[in-house]
Protein: ABC transporter
Organism: Zafaria cholistanensis
Amino acid sequence: MPNSSGYRAVVSARNLTKRFGDFTAVDGISFEIPAGESFGLLGPNGAGKSTIMRMLGGVSRRTSGELEVMGLDPERQGPEVRAHLGVVPQQDNLDEELRVRDNLIIYGRYFGLPMSYLRPKSAELLEFAQLGDKAGARIGELSGGMKRRLTIARSLINDPGILLLDEPTTGLDPQARHVLWDRLFRLKERGTTLVLTTHYMDEAEQLCDRLIVVDRGRIMAGGSPAELIRAHSSREVLELRFGAGRNASAAGALAGLGERIEVLPDRILVYADDGEAVLGQAVARGLEPATSLVRRSSLEDVFLRLTGRSLID
């Protein structure tokens, strides 16, 4: 298996487009991913992220544009591309009839890997996924977080250079998400290229070296999380709630405070370098918010600035 570091970019997309009839799911996007990077596609459900992932994996044909994965065309050289990929789908598709260890071994046989390799490799991956004591368990005995870690372990059975993760932590509780993040950090430290989709801003900030913000099939912005926040938001955000039906009227009294103001159905966001100072100015004007919160800017604020809507619709 060739090493992904042998290519300048392990993934290269140029004017990549995918249409379904009159609907354009991916609209002429271009990006490159160097070996060893953790690259994210951030956007709401329906933004085109999963469609991009399916084209990378060679299971969906592009309408137009160019796409290379490890120097290969996924459409013309699909089996060769998939031999170097690990794929973690949105929904776990583990075989309920097989026990935990056998899910890895049988999957590995699809790649033509010998049992002499699969036995020790499956044991190694189960330890990596913190499932060593569950090797003989049935899938139905596992928690949601355990199933997700097993799906990731299974995706690594062929020692892939690139791991595609489509919404890897959707549906998991906070503790399970952090355990999964730790496993992904460890893979990145080993040099595995990670490509993940997410609509969780904290996940993108935690896991991604670089990302593109996608909305309606188009790239709105790209860069590291810190770069995007610096370019498109203030250092801090003051969140104010005045109660049902009163946010819009209160926004007028906040005019001139901070760099900009966003009025959402449930709260007002005031963007500023010093949120506490702005809160003091608001109180001095006689405003009495029901609740107030000063926080640092996030990718959610970047997306709101770029699109006028929240990441999670």
Q: What stands out?
A: The longest strand covers residues 23-33. The chain has two domains: 4-224, 234-296. The chain is about 35% helix and 25% strand.
